[in-house]
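Tokens as discussed.
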């Protein structure tokens, strides 16, 4: 795809993923720096830029976390070079501390865009979050594209906008935008040499002044921010991403943002309402273009808001309407406030159709009754496929060892979980061992707190979990805090050699840069030892050794102990063409089936997808299409019915 992303073919229409379109927009804008921390649904943007970074002379990095990514991008802007920072909604939380101060100082001569994608429905996230609220909270200009082509155009335009108002501009995506594919018309690529980077705000001994890039709690800075914001509002009144379609005086006005505008247009078309319903598609969300909004409010008596997820536009427009003294105009507002849309999850054309038929009193059958009945019948044939870890996942081995060690210890120990593939530890794949789970690094942070409760009679062993990428991202400060403050818990770092959950991106422990070039390895074990923690390294597939190590560390009951669970992710092994270690088979005469511990220990409790249950024979089986030959199930089987043989 690199040739398409960097193709110098203006006017050509190409099929791009939304994330690739964002990358292309940034390239067309002439960025010099791109930084990010991986997280779906944004993970493909940085690699798309990295693929062409050499030929386009762009510096690209996977940063250790989103705050650092934002700081790297800001430095580029300070030196006059356009920059892009990319993160998902959870990552914006990490970056906000810097962002609020950056708004106060402003950026440099180089425009700066922050692309943040929310995940309605939490399809690839631990939670839902509407990032638009942060833009309103901190006075950040905010844009939201409807489709892939507009994402490309909007990102490119946002750099000029950013430079005009001297502020970073947030462009918000959602999962359906980032992972859609659509026709994108390519624009011009920047020609010629990029200007030389220079930080001009250096100290002058003859005119010593405070730097403009030094944030202070000054009301002057806040006043200047609002002045910039009013300038931004004037620009957004004429932004090319706001458009209206429909009658001059619509019976009902839909105000829609982002992909919800496409859902709304489809609903109006299905119901044949183009002569009655107007659609105001807003790409410029904040600051609210007051004149544009008030113009259309004055032409209708009914307004329906369609947006994902919270009532951001809905609340903002209603505030504007009330503040403008127009509440005597008799407008009825519909949306989340009226119960027509939920304040969570994704929207869709069906929901818009349902809202329109209710408001306009239209008869419309969404689904044919016979089709609905047949679909329900066929759904019964679809097997239940619960969430699971991959066959050969080292995290399954770790959780099994944890479960056994806690049981052997007998003091009601528990696990403080964290975010990653191993987050499945809250359910069957991790044998329900993870009992707390919040944000990246929080497993270690929460364990800090538990580790100081001994004075109150607390005597339960605490185990904290962190992935390898999460360790560098957010757990390291919590580990330093724990050692410094003499907390008491055991930290297990699940080192599978990649940021596996979001696409196997490299991190400081992998020895590879975002561009694929070699990099120094930041030694995780050495870092942990440098804090003063006691450190061990285990292979979780050695169940006996690992279980004993966890048990031993739990019993020490003083200070911070670290066990690095080191085993390469199975999917990384496949990418590297590492052959299976074992050939697996079940000896039917030894398998005791449903008489096994907890009723089929291997297939029902242990749950590796490489194992099957033969209901006719009443025996376990190896699924040769899925089994990766890790050998773990042979160590788990209490009857010794599963055999592993070395592959030579």
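Sequence:
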């Amino acid at each position: 795809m690199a040739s398409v992303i960097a193709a110098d073919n203006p006017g050509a229409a190409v099929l791009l993923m939304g994330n690739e379109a964002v990358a292309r927009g940034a390239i067309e804008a002439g960025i010099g720096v791109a930084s990010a921390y991986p997280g779906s649904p944004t993970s493909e943007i940085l690699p798309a830029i990295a693929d062409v970074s050499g030929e386009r002379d762009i510096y690209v990095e996977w940063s250790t976390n989103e705050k650092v990514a934002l700081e790297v991008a800001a430095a580029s802007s300070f030196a006059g070079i356009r920059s892009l920072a990319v993160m998902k909604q959870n990552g914006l939380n990490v970056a906000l501390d810097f962002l609020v101060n950056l708004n106060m100082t402003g950026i440099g001569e180089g425009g700066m865009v922050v692309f943040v994608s929310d995940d309605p429905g939490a399809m690839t996230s631990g939670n839902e979050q509407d990032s638009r609220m942060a833009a309103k909270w901190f006075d950040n200009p905010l844009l939201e594209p409807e489709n892939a082509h507009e994402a490309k155009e909007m990102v490119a335009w946002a750099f000029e906008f950013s430079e005009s108002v001297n502020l970073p501009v947030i462009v918000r995506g959602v999962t359906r935008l980032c992972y859609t594919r659509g026709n994108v018309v390519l624009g011009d690529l920047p020609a010629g040499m990029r200007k030389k980077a220079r930080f001009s705000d250096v100290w002058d001994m003859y005119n010593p002044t405070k730097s403009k890039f030094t944030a202070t709690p000054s009301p002057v800075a806040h006043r200047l921010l609002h002045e910039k914001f009013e300038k931004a509002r004037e620009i957004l009144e004429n932004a090319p991403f706001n458009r209206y379609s429909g009658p001059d005086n619509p019976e009902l006005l839909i105000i829609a943002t982002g992909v919800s505008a496409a859902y709304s247009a489809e609903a109006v078309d299905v119901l044949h309402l183009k002569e009655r319903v107007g659609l105001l598609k807003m790409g410029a969300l904040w600051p609210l273009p007051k004149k544009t909004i008030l113009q259309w409010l004055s032409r209708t008596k009914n307004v329906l808001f369609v947006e994902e997820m919270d009532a951001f536009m809905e609340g903002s427009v209603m505030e504007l309407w009330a503040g403008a003294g127009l509440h005597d105009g008799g407008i009825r507002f519909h949306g989340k406030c009226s119960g027509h849309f939920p304040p969570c999850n994704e929207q869709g054309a069906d929901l818009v159709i349902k809202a329109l038929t209710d408001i306009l009193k239209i008869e419309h059958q969404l689904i044919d009754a016979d089709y609905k009945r047949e679909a329900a019948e066929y759904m019964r044939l679809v097997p239940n496929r619960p969430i699971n870890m991959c066959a050969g996942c080292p995290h399954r081995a770790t959780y099994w060892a944890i479960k056994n060690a806690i049981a052997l210890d007998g003091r009601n120990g528990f696990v403080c979980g964290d975010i990653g593939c191993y987050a499945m530890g809250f359910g069957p794949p991790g044998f329900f061992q993870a009992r707390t789970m919040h944000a990246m690094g929080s497993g270690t942070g929460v364990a800090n707190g538990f580790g100081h409760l001994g004075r109150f009679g607390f005597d339960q062993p605490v185990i904290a979990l962190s992935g390898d990428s999460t360790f560098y991202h957010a757990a390291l400060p919590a580990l330093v805090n724990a050692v410094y403050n003499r907390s008491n818990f055991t930290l297990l770092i699940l080192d599978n050699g990649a940021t596996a959950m979001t696409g196997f991106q490299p991190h400081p422990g992998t020895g590879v840069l975002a561009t694929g070039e070699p990099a120094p390895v930041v030694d995780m074990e050495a870092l942990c030892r440098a804090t003063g923690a006691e450190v061990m390294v285990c292979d979780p597939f050695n169940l006996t050794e690992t279980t004993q190590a966890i048990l031993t560390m739990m019993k020490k009951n003083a200070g911070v102990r670290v066990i690095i669970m080191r085993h390469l992710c199975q999917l990384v092994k496949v990418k590297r063409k590492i052959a299976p270690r074992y050939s697996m088979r079940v000896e039917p005469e030894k398998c005791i089936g449903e008489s096994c511990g907890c009723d089929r220990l291997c297939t029902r409790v242990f749950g590796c997808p490489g194992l099957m249950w033969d209901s006719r024979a009443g025996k376990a089986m190896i699924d040769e299409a899925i089994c990766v030959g890790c050998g773990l199930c042979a160590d788990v089987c209490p009857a010794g019915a599963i055999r592993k043989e070395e592959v030579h």
